[in-house]
Amino acid sequence: MCKTVTEATNQNSLSIDEMEALDIVHLMLEEDRNILEGVKKSLTAIAKAVELIVDKWQHGARVFVAGAGTSGRIGVLDAVELGPTFSIDPDRWIAFVAGGKNAMWEPLEQHEDSDSDIVQELQQHHFNENDVLIAISASGTTPYSLAALTYAKEKQASSISISCNNQTISSELSDVGIELVVGPEVIRGSTRLKAGTAQKLAINMISTATMIKLGKVYQNEMVDMQLINKKLVKRAETMLTQLTNLDEQEAQALMNETNNDVKLSLIIAKTGCTKQEAEKYLTKANSHVKKAIHLYEMHSEKDIND
Questions:
Q1: Bridge partners, residue 166, by sequence
Q2: Are residues 32 and 124 in the same domain?
Q3: Cβ atoms within 10 Å, residue 189
Q4: Which parts of the chain sit beneath pLDDT 70?
Q5: Which of 73, 95, 202, 294 is the residue whose CA sits 20 to 30 A from 193?
């Protein structure tokens, strides 16, 4: 039985309408302290979600994110950043918000009661058993999100839910149920506040940790970012000089040689191998730069010993 913490009255803010501005924001900050504890208790489930996506992704899965209102907007906000940050094909991590794209800019919350719109969207994208669905809903009972989870179950696809109540229907319907219980909002039911922040933290963790596990990060650098402007090209060159013994001119020359491929440039700079060898070992390492460097060094050491 779902306990609707998200709809409960916060006893700490009963007189918020009488407070001075400083007291209001102080109270809000104090209430926000509950967010970290709520997310902390869900870290195991969040990690399971990452492992599920990574496993499915390596077999060609796409990730679909569905939510209404604030929850949907959070899913879209996260998804659109994955392309430039990690060079993810936009057709592999797709987010839907109830009411469509206009709902990002207009209050179209009435669409959260629709249990057919999301199914039609998923059908149009040929959603199938190889894919992963992430349903985001503060209450865990939003019809739009529940319909997405139900459809995923029908298609025998993997599913993850993110909600902010205990024992939600969303969790029952999903393979991994993430319940971020952060307590009642300072304004009763206004889940754009603590619940929204907790959801943003969780989806950021899921997408970022997934990209790291897929080899999109070397140390803590974005080695798979899209170099779509001068600032990002400069960032990549600076990254090379900081991570290797190359000077600025050498970094620029290497980036030109690899057609601005940061991963290949790093492997070449770190090992002294050729571009063809870097490509070969990066493929063997499943796009992980550290693993590719290690494989090359092991191979070189073997050749020396032989």
A1: 3
A2: yes
A3: 15
A4: 1-3, 102-103, 105-114, 301-306
A5: 95
Range of the domain at 195: 5-213
Question: 126-168 pLDDT, tens per residue?
Answer: 999 999 999 999 999 999 999 999 999 999 999 999 999 999 9
- Catalytic one of 81, 109, 221, 250: 81
Instruction: Check which CATH number belongs to the domain holding 269 and give it.
Output: 1.10.8.1080
Q: What are phi and psi of 293, to 5 degrees?
A: -60, -45
Question: Which position has the token pair 């990209």?
Answer: 211
Catalytic option among 112, 121, 185, 279? 112
Q: Is 126 left (phi over 0), alpha (psi -120 to 50) or beta?
A: left
Annotated catalytic residue 81: yes
CA distance 167 to 4: 9
How many structural domains does the chain have? 2
Neighbours of 300 (CB within 10 A): 14
Two tokens, residue 71: 């929850």
- 225 and 201 inside one domain: no
* Separation CA 226–CA 89 (nearest Å): 11
**DSSP code at position 113:** G
Q: Is 92 helix (H, G, I), strand (E, B) or coil?
A: coil
Residues sharing a CB contact under 8 Å with residue 3, sequence separation 6 or more, in sequence order: 165, 166, 167
Q: pTM score, two decimals?
A: 0.92
Q: 33 is written with which tokens?
A: 């302290």
Residue at a domain's end among 213, 233, 256: 213
Q: Are residues 208 and 242 in the same domain?
A: no
